Amino acid sequence: MRQKYKYGFHDTITPLYHTKQGLSEAVVREISAIKQEPQWMRDARLRALAVFNKKPMPTWGADLSNIDFKKITYYARSSDKPAHTWGKVPKKIKTAFERLGVPEAERKFFAGVGAQYDSETVYHHIQKDLEAKGIIFTDTDTALRTYPDLFKQYFGTVVPVGDNKFSALNAACWSGGSFIYIPKGVTVDLPLQAYFRINKKNMGQFERTLIIADEDSDVHYIEGCTAPVYTTDSLHAAVVEIIVRPRARVRYTTIQNWSSNVYNLVTKRARAEQGALVEWIDGNLGSKTTMKYPSVFLAGAGARADILSVSLAGKGQHQDAGAKVVHLAPDTSSSIVAKSVSFGGGRTSYRGLAQVVKGAHNARIKVRCDALVLDKKSRSDTYPTIKAAENNATIEHEATVSKISEQELFYLRARGFSETEAASLVVSGFFEPLAKTLPIDYAIELNRLIQMEMESSIKTA
Q: Would you call 65 exposed, middle or buried from its count of C-beta atoms within 10 A (0-12, 13-18, 19+)?
């Protein structure tokens, strides 16, 4: 019997306030008014709405034709303001997050934790010693009020409003997300974590995350995502902007585990300055449809990017994921590793860009795509784009598609594992590069999620 989606429970929590379904100028003004935002932000939202209305739906990638923007709720609030101690979180919301393991994770290995429920952050906490070092880790709405100059300086500088239809939608309706500033020369030894939960039916979640790592700093940020299972669809359209100043390092890890009724359409981009390093660790499990391509613009000499994209697609799922790197400066290097598994009629796609502009001498790019297709009903595609305006660039691209070895399955089944358990173990080994980057509790949970997704759905070719 197939295991149920572990995080698909629905919390009986009535929002304190929500806008009516559908998107209009009145709704955008209402969101801005509720948040008591400055005029420049309200005006920016309205400009973004106009861009969203003008841009057509993407006709490439996954099928988005069934998204009904008129049925989506674009803002819902379940608490008055973020709590900074766990005891002050509203009881029902606290119970929901305890079922998800958020407070336990914080106690074990995080320097700070944020938790968002539908449109608003309900809990945010950072260790006191980090505050003393000048580190800012708060929700994005609070950052707009508390650090207006810093916020305005960087907001929208890496992902422009008009980048794509869904980045424009986010800019019009954004709410919640994380704001992080790491001062010069400061290293955060433990990861910072945020958790995003959609609860309301037909909900749109549009968090906005902005990370600024100043010169010679170092930080690791981890986010997790879940949602209840409904018969109707929800929409998640986040935007992440990361500014990595000279010689700084940022690692951004996502373990997405949306339910099968969520469209996950996300824009994530970083700009790396001289000698900086950006690491994207992107795990895509769950969701109905994902379109997500973490990107790095290597803007300074010697900047580097390492991107690991991992996708698992089962019945009724399309994971259209990948990565993009744009080399804008000399002596820059990037590595993209994409690993995907499709089974039960699922589909995975790698969609990537490797670009070297004029003047980016001695750029080095290596792309490797490995796909595992577990049955004849499933599908895997690769759509790489390579653009090079410099003759001395070194660009490598490798792609493999394979199925589970019958010898591996025989070996495992001979030792008492069922067919599904054996296949799950092989897939877990295939995803080992992702597991090795995670804290041990996350790695264990990843293996559980893989087995849960594949339970009674695997049919080897």
A: exposed
Radius of gyration of the chain (CA): 21
- Which three-class secondary structure state does DSSP give residue 441? helix
Residue 252 sits at φ, ψ, to 5 deg, of -120, 115
| Residue 339 to residue 370: CA distance in whole angstroms | 5
Tokens 């990843």 correspond to 446
Distance from C-alpha of 183 to C-alpha of 113, rounded to nearest angstrom: 19
Q: What is the pLDDT of residues 211-226, one digit of tens each?
A: 999 999 999 998 876 5
- Counting residues of the chain whose pLDDT is more than 70, the rounded percentage is 80
Backbone angles phi, psi at 213, to 5 degrees: -105, 110
- Distance, CA of 31 to CA of 435 (rounded, Å): 39
DSSP string, 8-68: --------SEEPPSS--HHHHHHHHHHTT--HHHHHHHHHHHHHHHHSPPP-SSS--TT--
What residue ranges do the domains of the chain occupy?
17-292
Q: What is the dihedral of CA 255, 8, 100, 4, to 10 degrees?
A: -90
Q: How far apart are the first and last CA of the chain?
A: 21
**How far is it, in rounded angstroms, from Cα 120 to Cα 77?**
6
**pLDDT for 457:** 54
Q: Which amino acid is at 434?
A: L
The pTM score is 0.88
